[in-house]
Amino acid sequence: MRTLIIISHPDVDESSSQQFLLQSISHLSSDQVTVHLLEKTYPDGVIDFEKEQALLRLHDRILFQFPFYWYSSPPMLKKWQDEVLTDHFAFGYRGNKLEGKELGLVLSIGLAEKDYQAGGQEGFSISELTRPYQAVAKKTGMTYLKPLAVFQFPYKNEAEKMRLLIDYQQYVTLSKPDSLKYREEWLVKALAETSEETLPGENVAFVIDQVIERVEDNRMELDELRMHIDNYHD
Amino acid sequence: MRTLIIISHPDVDESSSQQFLLQSISHLSSDQVTVHLLEKTYPDGVIDFEKEQALLRLHDRILFQFPFYWYSSPPMLKKWQDEVLTDHFAFGYRGNKLEGKELGLVLSIGLAEKDYQAGGQEGFSISELTRPYQAVAKKTGMTYLKPLAVFQFPYKNEAEKMRLLIDYQQYVTLSKPDSLKYREEWLVKALAETSEETLPGENVAFVIDQVIERVEDNRMELDELRMHIDNYHD
């Protein structure tokens, strides 16, 4: 699976959250992921729509990554949508070039998650406010992924940042990023690849082995439970 | 009441619906309405946010008028939002400069109204897809008006265009554009001002008088019904 991350940000170099996200996937190969910074690629704002359409065809998962200003993307991404997602390409007669691909959102948001609900400060949920993107996925025949919303990045502690790093890597690379089973397998694989050289501290190898064993035990228990439930239904 | 119509369109001169809407309010005075064409005012895309904020302060009703491409505005209006609706002006500490004003949308839409519902071609309603603008109104303390959606303008017949002309004039000028009573009063006044000179055909004055009489009779009947209902509740 190849993922295209389309980033729109008026000043990506100065954004701590964008830089953190970029760094956390910098080890991935170009076979896995393409990072595409719109404002840097087109500083004059003139988009090469044929090049963009060719890029889209090469990838299976398309992510729109941007700060959620006024409940939508920066203007550059909207310009991209209007000029690249054309009739006969993305919709309409023979406009099936995006069909079957996935569309996801990576949103950086200044307020807290609790503010986005009825009665909260913003009054509406992220699901409601991102409906236009869900409609884009529907119109183009793409599968809409559950958005990855990064709330209040500057206030995150180290543990929360590590959690975000894993969530983001999985959102970019995992074939089913919303499945517990797939996320477990991914974690076991990532842990197995971790070695004493890449991590500081004593007894690291032992700790990692213990964590892997625990995750695998949990999975066996969950699988057994599922088996019981399936038998019950038969 | 003064209304500011902020129009965003990549090519407003070539848009038949935008030209129709502009013509239908061309008789209104500058005390009543200001038409503000964003792309023409800022051809280089550089927005004078202080001038824009001063313009907003001068008006009571703000309308965003644009083609509903990909379920949102053209990029220029989003740029305007991001740069003009700043902290301490539109929200945040002392950011109450738009409080109590009204925010409305005038959307030109290529498909039919029936396509915008669950199970329809687009899958989501206009209310759902315009949630981000409703959230802007909430955040800035503005009253959100029911959007005026113009579906499939090129397919409209003359009667439908006349209906749109009245709806749009009322949306721009009427203090309560959604109230039947106010719309009736507006219509009676507009008809009374109509004369044989401005309309072709024979017996025009007589026909207009008849229409006014009919509308006023209807209103009296509705008022009587309301009185009965009120008595019933007492």
Automatic annotation (TrEMBL), chains A, B:
InterPro entries assigned: Flavodoxin_fold, Flavoprotein-like_sf, KefG/KefF
Pfam family, one: Flavodoxin_2
UniProt keyword list: Oxidoreductase
Oxidoreductase in keyword set: yes
The UniProt record lists the keyword Acetylation: no
Coiled-coil region(s): none
Name of the protein in its database record: Putative NADPH-quinone reductase
Species, as recorded: Alkalibacterium olivapovliticus
